[in-house]
Structures are given as structure tokens and as C-alpha cells.
Amino acid sequence: MKISEVNTLGKLKKSGYTPKSIKEELRSNLIPKLQSGKKVFEGIIGFDDTVIPDLERAILSNHNILLLGLRGQAKTRIARLLTSLLDEYMPIVEGSEINDDPMQPISRYAQDLIAEHGDKTPVSWVHRDERYVEKLATPDVSIADLVGDVDPIKAASLKLPFSDERVIHFGLIPRSHRSIFVINELPDLQARIQVSLFNILQEEDLQIRGFKLRLPLDIQFVFTANPEDYTNRGSIVTPLKDRIESQILTHYPMSTDIARKITEQEAKIADDQLSSIHVPDKVRDLLEMISFTARESEFVDEKSGISARMSISGMENLHSTAERRMLINKEKKTAIRITDFWGVIPSITGKMELVYEGEQEGPYQVALKLLGDAIKTLFLEYFPHPEKIKKGVDNDPYGAIKLWFSGGNNLDLLHDDTDKEHKKKLDKVAGLRKLVKDKNIEAQDQLFFMELVLHSLSEFQVVSKNFVQSKISFSDPLATMFDDLDSE
Question: Per the count of CB atoms within 10 A, which of 41, 230, 355, 356 is most buried?
Fold first, then answer.
């Protein structure tokens, strides 16, 4: 029998439908997925051996769940994906505010309707996507918002005394009956509001304004919290923590490969950008290295964390920086350069909390430092450490480059140079192209690596680098030193 044909309680009974709790529903739909080896949570990357198994165990145990982790660790996305484990459609008593099961009604409205109409009670169906309710915990959330309150307007319109339970206006939690209810940033919820959740979690009932009312609510609770909030700004009251059966720790990507996959999945890049802009493979690694470097930086508050959104918005800005340059120069195609990473700075400065030393440096300088450290890390994967090359040895791989700069030559890379100008300038530096070619780097990526060498040598103070508005100037460090002395 089709769902569209099952529109009364009588037909529902004949269809063979049997009520089950939402936790049983999640469990029964998870089991065949695990047995078949199918991926349970599509789009979640990097948690296959850590978070996901814990989550699956919690579901099999019929547990309420607390996802504990720093910002940008996919906690909310995981919660939203739980709907994929629900039955596609769920029957309810038509018109019920709280998704009453026609076979097990709990509200006065549904009970009265069934008592009046019996098997002819109208039944409607709710899709699983509508069985997800999410609330951001803020200090102004009230018990009435979550649980409910007496509604004087309803009492007046129905001509009922305040002692009648039909005057109750249900809050978000009872309206989430037979659904997944998510509270984000749980520690921000006032302690007295957290206390109101005790009975709902443990005894699965509800109390509103002193009514002798028992609603055996059936809800899958998922809470999210940031460890910083958990211990400092706010806290989860101990009895509530005790009632949340499974606490699952999330984490940042363990490797740049995993981080790259997340960025590639989440970054919204326009189709014309994808077709006209070449992204050297190591650009993706360099972008992720900035986030990894930030998480270990002495200037950045490690308790606050560095969200995956830094790399995602950074990748979007990289494409837009290259596209802007391409449009200005009336070019049809281009490739990402190291200088394009200066367009990523706005994606970095707004996504990190600085400690005192970082505040003294300033967010812009910290962002440049993170970029410089990431550039050095990538450079050392391909080229020898400049400081570890013995002096006086003839085979110094950077010898020709040093001589070129020490001969009084300068190099100015403009952010908006055309591709032709960019190539011409880099090729002027003696020994630079040969150094990169010797590493068997693909021709289309050689300019990126040539520029990488220059920026890295400046980080190691082999050459001098200065920022002048819309250009970066490379020169001999000794010449710069003498210029400074002359100016003094």
C-alpha cells in the first residue's frame, strides 16, 4: 500500500505499521548500512577511524550525544546527517503540534481526536528532513522557548480556563517529539535552563508551569560544545553531563591530504574560475600548511582553534585574486602564484584569536608570519636548507642567485603583473630556472616554484624582501643594509 493511500488510522493499522522510538529507528537503519559496508555519513572526511566509530557505537547504544570540539570541526554537519538514518516518512495524527504517533498519541489534542473519530482519524506523513530541529544556545534562551508556557491568547480564543492543558503553547522540545533535536554551544545555555532538561533526558517526560502533565517525549538529543566554552566562558552543569550518555571528541584534520579533501569539497569555486585558472598541486598543500602552522603558532590561542573555514575561504580568495588579475590584464587563462597569497590575508586575519604576543605583533603581521613559515616548510620538501650549505663549497645550489642579487640587481614582482611580465621577471634571475628544472618539476608549475624559491630565500634572509604597496621587491640583503646606514 502506498503512503499516499494510508490517510486514516484504520488504513495505517492494516498497513502493518508498528511504532518504534526514534533511537530504535536510528539503530535499525544503521545496522544494515554497517553490514553492507556502505559509508554512513557522506561528506564527513577525516573521521573514519575516530569520530564516526564512536558515533555509530552511541547510536547502537540508544544514547544521547555530546559532540565536543573546537570550531570548524563539522559538529553541526554530523548532527544534520543523522536524518539520513531515519525512515523516509513518519505517520502523525493530522494537525498535531507535536508529531503524535497515531498508534501511541500523547497529546490531549490527538487523544481527543482519536476518541471521536476512531479508525477514521486522519493521518498525514512527515518526511525525515522535517524531523530535525536545531537551536543555538544563547544566554537569552528561556524555558518557555525550549519547553513551553501557558498561552493566554489560546485560552481566550478557546474559552478555556488556565487549568486546562489545552492552553499550553509547546516549546521547541515537545515540538521535536519523534525527531532529532540539536542544541549548539550548550555551555552558553544558562544553568537554570540546563536544569529544565534533566527530566526530559532521564525520565523522558515534561513539566510546564506546574501542570500535572506527563508527556513521554521521544527525542534523539545531540548537543555540541567547544572545549573553551566548556571550561571557561560557560559550563555544562554536572547532572546534565551525567545524563548525556556519550561524549564524542572531534578534531582537526590529521594531515594536509585530508585537509585538502575537505577544502576541495567545501570551497565554492565558480565554473569559469575552474576552467580558466590553473592551480599547481602544491598550492593546495601550501594553503593547508598555513592552517597547520597557525594551530601551532605561539601568537595564536590554541584553545580557540583554527577553523577549516580558513582554508576554504582562502581557496576561494586565491581563485578570486587570480581572476581579478586576469580580468585587469585582459587574459583568458592564468595560474596561481605565490604573490596571489597576499589576497588570502583577509581570510586569515579574521579567523584566529591572538594571544598577547600576537596582539602586540598585529593580525596582519601574524598572518604574514604564518604564510612565511608555511612557505619555508614547503620549500624544504624540495630544496636543501640554505643555512646548512657549507661555505666555500663550489656546488652551492643558490650560488648563482646570490651572485645575481649581490651584483646590484633587484626584482620587483607586482601583484597584477601579466603572465608574460611575471615570467620575464623571474627568468632574469640567474640560476633560478635551472634550480627548479633540476627537481624535475612540470613545466606548467615551474614559475610557481621559482617564485617559491625567492620567497623562501628571503625567509632565510639570503635575499631581502620588502613590501611596497602593490609590489614585492627582492634585493641583496647587504645592499639594503648599506642603504639603511646611508639614510641614517
Answer: 41
In angstroms, the CA 481 to CA 30 distance is 67
Q: How far apart are CA 39 and CA 33, in angstroms?
A: 7
pLDDT band for 481, please (50, 70, 90 cuts).
Answer: low
Contact 470, 415 (CB under 8 A): yes
Q: pLDDT, tens digit, for every residue of 107-133?
A: 888 999 999 999 999 999 999 999 999
Distance CA 313, CA 315 (A): 5
CB proximity list for 133: less than 8 A, separation 6 or greater = 172, 175, 176, 179, 180, 181, 182
The secondary structure element, H or E, covering residue 35 is helix 22-36
Task: Please tell me the pTM assigned to this model.
Answer: 0.86
Name which of 409, 376, 199, 207 is nearest 292 in CA terms. 376
- The SS3 assignment for 300 reads strand
Q: Are 336 and 419 in contact (CB under 8 A)?
A: no
Q: Is the dihedral of CA 41, 46, 50, 51 positive or negative?
A: negative
Coil vs helix vs strand at 204: coil
Distance of CA 268 to the CA centre of its chain: 14
